[in-house]
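Pilot study result, target chain (119 residues):
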Amino acid sequence: QVQLVQSGGGLVQAGGSLRLSCAASRSIFSNNDCDWYRQAPGMQRELVATITTRGTTNYADSVQGRFTISGDNAKNTVFLQMNSLKPEDTAVYYCHIFIPNGSDWGNYWGQGTQVTVYS
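Predicted structure:
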C-alpha cells in the first residue's frame, strides 16, 4: 500500500501565498502522474493541477498563472505552490495518484488539507 501524507495549507489573506506538500511513502511519482484536487463546501471535488511523469503540467482555468505544481522525485514529494490566492480558492485540497498496474493498482488520496482565504 502507498500512503500520501499532506502538509501545508492554513489561513491566508487574499493575495497571499501558500505551499502544499504531498509526500509518498515510497518512490511512485517518477512512474505515475500526480494530481491536486480541491473540494469546497457543497461542491464537487475538482481537478486543480496535474504533473505527468515527463514533467508536463496542466491546470484548471481558474488557477492558471497563479498555481504551480512541481515534484521532487528524490524526496518522493509533490508540491502545489499557490500564489495570488482568492477567497474562492477556499477548499480542502487533496493530492491524488492513480497507479495503473502492479500489486499497488488503484487510486490513492492524501488526507486533505484545509486552505482558507479571507478578504
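One observation from the pilot: The chain has a mean pLDDT of 95. A full batch analysis is planned for the follow-on phase.
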